[in-house]
């Protein structure tokens, strides 16, 4: 079982699946978007490699990144915790302090939730965002002639995970480099302001996704939903200068399939894309939409080598929600 096939099956079973297809549901009549994400112990995090504070921070950041990919404004959160018997109140206190770091910054109200018992820790957050008069970005809005942009750098979270899981391998790497990558994994920052800027200033509704399951996954899904062909220049994909020291030749693979960077990937009008890249240091143009293509197509061009991102690649290389 994999995520892509399961979503297709679920969609086929729902009488009205028109709200499904993006990371958020757009409730047009209410001018709201809604997203929900679940973090499961030993699937999405391990207590030996994170703290309750960082877990709370990341749980909120994951949902905020989905709101950012719409260009919406986050407003209300509902938090559900399923906790085993060995978890005490101090864990919950630190967890909520971590969430409140981002809630305070972005004006989010935690409006409710649920608490239950479980064999392992399960965290579920439902987040409601406001569109305030702007149609949110959708995966299906890419057009021929668009440029492909990304916010921030790719692959760092995967490097951080590698360090957290195998720190003894990197005893000769400078401590500040190790901490930088670990923080990229444990404390990602959602691009709420840039997502909003892209939607507000674009002449038309852009195509946009976050890179929670990797840049390759985001581009693949945009190309499929929009029925377009996308070309990306590998050397334009922004990565940290120290990534090669950790990745040992895997920098491109981690940027495309490592996941959990929570940057944004978008297809926007060419002139607007160049304007954004010129005035915003975090934004980089990495490719272009070259035309219509039924069922989509993504080509990565690297050192005279061209290869296509396929569904099989996504299934085998992107993050697996089912172990």
The gist of it:
The chain is α+β, with helices and mostly antiparallel strands and 323 residues long. It contains eleven helices and twelve strands.
Structural commentary:
By secondary structure, this protein is of the alpha+beta class. It folds into 2 domains: 14-130, PurM-like, N-terminal domain (60s Ribosomal Protein L30, Chain: A); 139-317, PurM-like C-terminal domain (Phosphoribosyl-aminoimidazole Synthetase, Chain A, domain 2), CATH 3.90.650. The protein is built from 11 helices and 12 strands. The strands form 2 sheets. It has a 7-stranded mixed sheet with strand order 7-9-6-10-8-11-12, sandwiched between helices. Helix 2 (52-70) packs parallel to helix 3 (89-106), helix 2 (52-70) runs parallel beside helix 6 and helix 4 (156-165) crosses helix 5 (175-186).
In whole angstroms, how far apart are the ends? 9 Å
Shape: globular
- SSE topology string: HEEHEHEEEHHHEHEHHEHEEEH
Q: What is the helix fraction of residues, given as a range?
A: 25-40%
Number of strands: 12
Please state the structural category: alpha+beta
CATH architecture name of the largest domain: Alpha-Beta Complex
- Spatial order of the strands in the main sheet? 7-9-6-10-8-11-12
CATH superfamily of the largest domain: PurM-like C-terminal domain
Count up the helices: 11
Largest sheet: 7 strands, mixed
Query: What is the percentage of strand-forming residues?
Result: 25-35%
Write the layout of secondary structure elements.
Layout lengths: L2 H11 L11 E3 L4 E9 L11 H19 L2 E11 L5 H18 L2 E9 L4 E9 L16 E5 L4 H10 L9 H12 L5 H10 L5 E4 L4 H12 L1 E6 L9 H5 L3 H7 L6 E5 L1 H10 L3 E10 L4 E6 L2 E4 L2 H7 L6
Parallel strand pairs: 3-4, 8-11
Antiparallel strand pairs: 1-2, 2-5, 3-5, 6-9, 6-10, 7-9, 8-10, 11-12
């Amino acid at each position: 079982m994999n995520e892509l096939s399961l979503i297709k099956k679920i969609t086929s079973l729902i009488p009205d699946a028109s709200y499904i297809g993006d990371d958020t549901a757009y409730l047009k009549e209410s001018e709201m978007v809604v997203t929900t994400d679940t973090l499961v112990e030993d699937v999405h995090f391990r207590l030996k490699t994170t703290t309750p504070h960082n877990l709370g921070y990341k749980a909120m950041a994951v949902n905020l990144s989905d709101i950012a990919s719409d260009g919406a404004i986050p407003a209300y959160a509902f938090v559900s915790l399923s906790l085993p018997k060995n978890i005490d109140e101090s864990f919950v206190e630190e967890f909520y302090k971590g969430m409140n770091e981002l809630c305070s910054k972005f004006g989010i109200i935690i409006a409710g939730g649920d608490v239950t018992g479980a064999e392992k820790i399960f965290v579920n957050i439902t987040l409601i965002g406001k569109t305030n008069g702007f149609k949110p970005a959708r995966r299906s809005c890419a057009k021929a002639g668009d440029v492909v942009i990304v916010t921030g750098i790719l692959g760092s979270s995967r490097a951080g995970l590698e360090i957290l899981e195998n720190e003894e391998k990197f005893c000769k790497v400078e401590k500040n480099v190790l901490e930088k990558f670990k923080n990229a994994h444990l404390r990602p920052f959602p691009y709420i302001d840039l997502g909003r800027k892209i939607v507000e200033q674009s002449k038309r509704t852009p195509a946009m996704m976050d890179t929670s399951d990797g840049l390759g996954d985001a581009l693949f899904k945009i190309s499929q939903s929009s029925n377009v062909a996308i070309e990306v220049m590998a050397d334009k994909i922004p990565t940290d200068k120290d990534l090669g020291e950790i990745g040992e030749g895997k920098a491109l693979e981690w940027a495309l399939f490592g996941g959990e960077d929570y940057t944004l990937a978008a297809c926007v009008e060419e002139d607007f894309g160049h304007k954004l890249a010129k005035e915003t240091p975090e934004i980089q143009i990495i490719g272009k939409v070259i035309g219509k293509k039924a069922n989509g197509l993504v080509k990565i061009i690297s050192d005279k080598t061209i290869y296509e991102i396929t569904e099989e690649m996504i299934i085998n290389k992107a993050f697996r929600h089912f172990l």
